[in-house]
Design goal:
The structure holds 2 protein chains of 2 kinds. By secondary structure, chain A is an all-beta fold. Chain A contains no helices and 11 strands. In chain A, strands 2, 4, 5, 9, 10 and 11 form a 6-stranded mixed sheet that branches. Chain A starts with a strand and ends with a strand. Chain B is mainly beta. Chain B is 0% helix and 49% strand. Chain B contains no helices and 11 strands. The N and C termini of chain B lie far apart (37 Å). The chains are: A mainly beta, B mainly beta. The interface between A and B is medium-sized, with 24 and 26 residues.
Chain lengths: 110, 115
């Protein structure tokens, strides 16, 4: 019940395209949903985050859409760039810890 | 911008040896965490720590693991008798509080290799 399911496992997008990564959860006690970006050999870096009382949050080219009733949330990367090529993890927060999704390896072709 | 730092960046040890991984959380943060990531897999929660006590730990965090805040700045993870399967990246994180929206900030990680 504390799992966060993430899809797809990998994603290839052309430069300028839209990258969409989806996550789903079961536990309604989760109260905060961050997305992290990770480059090889580096730690996860916060990209954008949302609380469950908000349906959408946009920061620059990055947008989170949140569907509380469906227990799903997604990351949209608009105008994807080769520099966005990284692994993206969704996470869900419950007291004292984050539960991470399995990650999506994004490759943006130049 | 303040950041979480970790040392060493890479630790190689023999099976059965003790290792201590060190972290300096962001200075005004109150909650500290350790996570691990086996190569190519997801980030997994190990332990959270607040007010000099473990707040929560996962099933991975068994008796061979311990955490300590030995002074006002460092936060350590000790593995008493390392096993081959302990080889992973270990990330320290810290957050200012515990409430909704208190983001956890991650360090760059320590790569632990157990031979």
């Amino acid at each position: 019940q504390q799992q966060v399911k993430q899809s797809p496992q990998s994603l290839i997008v052309q430069k300028g395209g839209i990258s969409i990564i989806n996550c789903a959860y079961e536990n309604t006690a989760f109260d905060y949903f961050p997305w992290y970006q990770q480059f090889p050999g580096k730690g996860p870096a916060l990209l954008i985050a949302i609380r469950p009382d908000v349906s959408e949050k946009k920061e620059g080219r990055f947008t989170i859409s949140f569907n509380k009733s469906a227990k799903q949330f997604s990351l949209h990367i608009m105008d994807s760039q080769p520099g966005d090529s990284a692994t993206y993890f969704c996470a869900a927060s419950i007291i004292y810890k984050y539960i991470f999704g399995t990650g999506t390896r994004l490759k943006v072709l130049a | 911008e303040p950041e979480v730092t970790q040392t060493p960046s890479h630790q190689v040890t023999q099976m059965g040896q003790e290792v201590i991984l060190r972290c300096v959380p962001i200075s005004n943060h109150l909650y500290f965490y350790w996570y691990r990531q086996i190569l190519g897999q997801k980030v997994e929660f190990l332990v959270s720590f607040y007010n000099n006590e473990i707040s929560e730990k996962s099933e991975i965090f068994d008796d061979q693991f311990s955490v300590e805040r030995p002074d006002g700045s460092n936060f350590t993870l000790k593995i008493r008798s390392t096993k081959l399967e302990d080889s992973a990246m270990y990330f320290c994180a810290s957050s200012p509080g515990l409430g909704s929206g208190d983001t956890q900030y991650f360090g760059p990680g320590t790569r632990l290799t157990v031979l």
